[in-house]
Structures are given as structure tokens and as C-alpha cells.
Amino acid sequence: MKWLERLLGRGREPTPAPSRGDPVRVLEAQRVIDDIAALVAADGGWIELVAVEGGWVHVRLHGACAHCGSSELTLRQALEPRLRATLTWFEGLRAV
After folding, report:
1. What average pLDDT does this structure show over 37-41?
2. Do residues 32 and 79 lie in contact, with contact meaning Cβ atoms separated by under 8 Å?
3. Counting beta carbons within 10 angstroms of the beta carbon of residue 90, is it exposed (0 to 12), middle (13 to 18) or buried (19 or more)?
4. What is the pTM for the complete model shown?
């Protein structure tokens, strides 16, 4: 299925820069993002953790999710509730 992967843009994930912020909080936030990675990948996208600044988690959407009309729904109804339930320090989520 290499042709289908090329068509969907998979396999072209950039090597993300290391996430900024407190290393412990970055690791905790990344674990939550990894929990929903399969859900997002099923639609041809992925979520990059850009930074954790204080209690704010900054993410960037890639692949099909970057321009999808449902991406805000994914962030607000799938990722944000999991971050809030898992991380005691979580204040909010921002897409950059």
C-alpha cells in the first residue's frame, strides 16, 4: 500500500524539534497525546507537542488534521478532556 500512504501523505512526518518546557510536564503531556495517536492517525494526521508553558499545552496538527474542519473538535472533545483528567497542573490547550 505504499501508493496509498504517499497519496495520504503518511510517511512524511517531519522530525519535530524537542518540545519546550519543564521536561516532566512535557513527558506527561506527551503520554496523553500518545494515547489518542491511533485515533488521529486513522484520519491521516498526527499531533506534535510543541511546548508546555506553565499549565498550557501547545500543540501543532499535521497531515490531514492540519486543514480539517474537525480538528478543533478533536482537540476540544478528545485531547483536552484527557489532559484535564490526567494532569493536575493542566490549565488549557492551544493549537499553534
Report:
1. 89
2. yes
3. buried
4. 0.81
